[in-house]
Design brief:
The chain is α+β, with helices and mostly antiparallel strands. The protein contains 3 helices and 13 strands. The strands form 2 sheets. The protein has a 7-stranded mixed sheet with strand order 5-6-3-2-1-4-7, with no helix packed on it. A 5-stranded mixed β-barrel has the order 9-10-11-13-12.
């Protein structure tokens, strides 16, 4: 009887040991998995040495050697030189991008708001941020603009937002002041305008050009929930727009 009792005690001890080890292993696995997930979440910065530079219009294109591969990034005009160590965000990759200005194709290129050097964050107040969100005035306007009223036969931005379901697919005319501009992204120029009817702006795509603060009349087709990929979805947008100065 005593022998049987001792045997049961040994089995219980072994079982407890196995379960304890299993708990430790599971905890270690969970911690390792969590660590990997954290690495994946935070691994959105590329750091490397500049090996080639191309300047085009208001953009600086930089080829960067990460030590494992070479990648291209495009950002605001920045006084970079080969050999510089820089960092940039990978949040905006573009695959199979064609640059009309350079007549060159990139299998993958990262559009960035700024290049970070080892010494200081590079900034350029006069350059555009290379993204569909575009160049914007440094001082944000927090009140409705004055004097930017509805064009004859057209709509205000507020009227478009209110009646967008009925206006979808129609050619609309809008008067507005240019607050953002980016040239040649995804084969389009991107313009944001505002008027006196609302704090919201209106995004338009066009082949025309415009300068910040210009008051213009835009005419284009209204589209809703337009998805351009890479996280860029526009609830309201005018496409293939013609722009004329007011």
């Amino acid at each position: 009887m005593t022998h049987r009792t001792n045997r049961i005690a040994i089995l219980i001890t072994c079982f407890s040991f196995i379960m304890t080890n299993a708990g430790i292993i599971n905890s270690a696995y969970a911690e390792q998995k969590s660590s990997k997930e954290k690495q994946q979440i935070t691994s959105h910065i590329i750091h490397g040495k500049v090996t080639d530079i191309i300047k085009a219009s208001v953009y600086t294109y930089a080829e960067v050697d990460t030590g494992k591969k070479k990648v291209w990034a495009a950002g605001p005009v920045t006084p970079l030189k080969t050999g510089d160590m820089i960092s940039f965000s990978t949040s905006m990759p573009m695959k199979n991008f064609h640059s009309k200005s350079m007549k060159r194709d990139f299998s993958v290129i990262y559009f960035v708001n700024s290049f970070m050097t080892d010494k200081v964050a590079s900034k350029n107040k006069d350059a555009a941020s290379v993204s569909p969100h575009g160049q914007m005035k440094q001082k944000q306007v927090v009140k409705p603009l004055k004097g930017i009223n509805k064009v004859k036969g057209g709509y205000t931005i507020a009227e478009i937002n209110i009646g967008k379901q009925k206006l979808k697919g129609k050619i609309l005319r809008v008067r507005g002041q240019v607050t953002k501009f980016t040239a040649n992204v995804m084969g389009k120029n991107w313009v944001h305008i505002r008027d006196s009817s609302t704090l919201a702006d209106l995004t338009v795509t066009t082949n025309s050009t415009a300068a910040i603060d210009d008051v213009v009349i835009v005419e284009g087709k209204l589209e809703l929930d337009k998805d351009f990929g890479y996280g860029y979805v526009y609830p309201v947008i005018l496409e293939d727009t013609k722009i004329t100065k007011n």
